[in-house]
UniProtKB/TrEMBL annotation:
Subcellular location: Cytoplasm
Exonuclease VII large subunit C-terminal domain ranges (all copies): 123-336
EC number: 3.1.11.6
The protein's enzyme class: hydrolase
CDD domains found in the cross-reference section: ExoVII_LU_OBF
Cellular component terms (Gene Ontology): cytoplasm; exodeoxyribonuclease VII complex
Protein name in the entry: Exodeoxyribonuclease 7 large subunit
InterPro entries from the UniProt entry: Exonuc_VII_L, Exonuc_VII_lsu_C, NA-bd_OB-fold, OB-fold_nuc-bd_dom
Span of domain OB-fold nucleic acid binding: 6-99
Sequence similarity: Belongs to the XseA family.
GO molecular function: exodeoxyribonuclease VII activity; nucleic acid binding
Function field: Bidirectionally degrades single-stranded DNA into large acid-insoluble oligonucleotides, which are then degraded further into small acid-soluble oligonucleotides.
Length: 401
């Protein structure tokens, strides 16, 4: 006999009806550890896990508002509700009506135990943290080569400083072999000499998904790294052992890129300000030097042979002027004295007498005859007049008694 083919809807409705009518599934209480916790506008979605199995759960808002504490990944709880089928995808899940805390989960206890152990060994000591280089030339990013994390880091890094070289080291960031791959990547990078800083990155996830970053081998590899390591795992609220042992914890992978890669615009602004300051200092120094040079030029000029020559030339000019004035004064004075003497001489000149109608008598030797005793009769004499002269012969000489 050939079986009748059922529609998917029909078989799903059948299974749902079976489960809804099951007296146990209609009201169950399940103990487990919360994983993949997501708070949504419609309710809380999570998975209950134990060492063997997992069960999807949802608590809608009608019951969520009755919850008096916040659920967290790794938390051990007891969930009461019913299990039924979600017809849209044919999966069954626990529709939680109440949640009670059942203590801390195993992973959380393991996390705290390892954290306490490594802290006692000094792996978290702040004085052992290596400084993150301010101007890295090459940054190695240890992460999954696919996904938003590496894209965000590369995008932010190139936006902030395109000259920084990004070396992507692909590793598994989830699963049983992830920790070994992360350790191997750190060991390989530490054999290189061109890597300035390492970003160990992974996106958000449940405690189980990010557990490789809580493993002791990863923590010891990070601690042994000679190259500074920045841990950027999960969201801001997620903390892993790698965050504590790394040289720096970034709240998110994107924040790690913001922290590690220097913003070239800041340097450009600093360079511009320094250039402006340098130019101002240079201009100020040039002005001071120019002023000093002008002062030295004045001193040099005042002490130079040129200036001394000019001073001497000026003195000579002054002396020449003084000399000329003095000579002119002397000349004028002597000239006046000369004219005065001429006037005196003229007034005393015998020739001047002629103008007044007198005559001068000269002998044959052109000597003035001033007395009658100096001449003899028949002697030839010369008589000078104001307008000429005449010769005469003495006819008779007589003198006054």
């Amino acid at each position: 006999m050939q079986l009748k083919a059922l529609e998917v809807r029909e078989i799903t409705e059948y299974i749902k009806k079976m489960m809804d009518n099951d007296i146990i599934l209609r009201n169950v209480r399940v103990r487990g550890e919360i994983s993949n916790l997501k708070y949504h506008s419609t309710g809380i979605y999570f998975t209950l896990k134990d060492e063997v199995s997992s069960l999807k759960c949802v608590m809608f808002n009608d019951y969520r508002k009755l919850l008096n504490f916040t659920l967290e990944d790794g938390m051990s709880v007891m969930v009461t509700g019913k299990i039924t089928v979600y017809e849209k995808n044919g999966t069954y899940q626990l529709y939680a009506q109440s949640v009670q805390s059942d203590g801390v989960g195993a992973l959380y206890l393991a996390f705290n135990k390892l954290k306490e152990k490594l802290q006692k060994e000094g792996l978290f000591d702040s004085d052992k943290k290596k400084p993150i280089p301010k101007n890295p030339k090459k940054i190695a990013v240890v992460t999954s080569p696919t996904g938003a994390v590496i894209r965000d880091i590369i995008t932010i890094s190139k936006r902030r400083n395109p000259t920084v070289d990004i070396l992507v080291v692909p590793v598994l960031v989830q699963g049983s072999s992830a920790a070994d791959e992360i350790c191997q990547a750190l060991e390989i990078l530490n054999k290189r000499s061109d890597v300035d800083v390492i970003i160990l990155a992974r996106g958000g996830g449940s405690l189980e998904e990010i557990w490789p970053f809580n493993e002791e081998k990863v923590a010891r590899c990070i601690h042994a790294s000679k190259i500074p390591v920045v841990s950027a795992v999960g969201h801001e609220t997620d903390f892993t052992i790698s965050d504590f042992v790394s040289d720096l914890r970034a709240p998110t992978p994107s924040a790690a890129a913001e922290i590690v890669v220097p913003d070239i615009k800041v340097y450009q602004r600093e360079i511009f300000l320094l250039k402006t300051k340098l130019i101002a200092l240079m201009i100020g120094e040039l002005k001071r030097k120019r002023k000093d040079i002008e002062g030295l030029k004045k001193v040099l000029y005042l002490n130079s042979p040129i200036k001394k020559s000019e001073i001497l030339r000026h003195k000579i000019d002054n002396l020449k002027t003084s000399l000329y004035k003095e000579m002119l004064s002397i000349y004028n004075r002597k000239k006046n004295e000369f004219y005065i003497l001429i006037e005196k001489l003229n007034s005393l000149s015998p020739l001047n007498v002629l103008t007044r109608g007198y005559t001068i008598v000269l002998d044959s030797q052109e000597r003035v005859i001033s007395t009658v005793k100096a001449i003899n009769p028949q002697e030839e004499i010369k008589i000078m007049f104001k307008d000429g002269e005449a010769k005469a012969v003495i006819s008779e000489v007589s003198s006054y008694e």
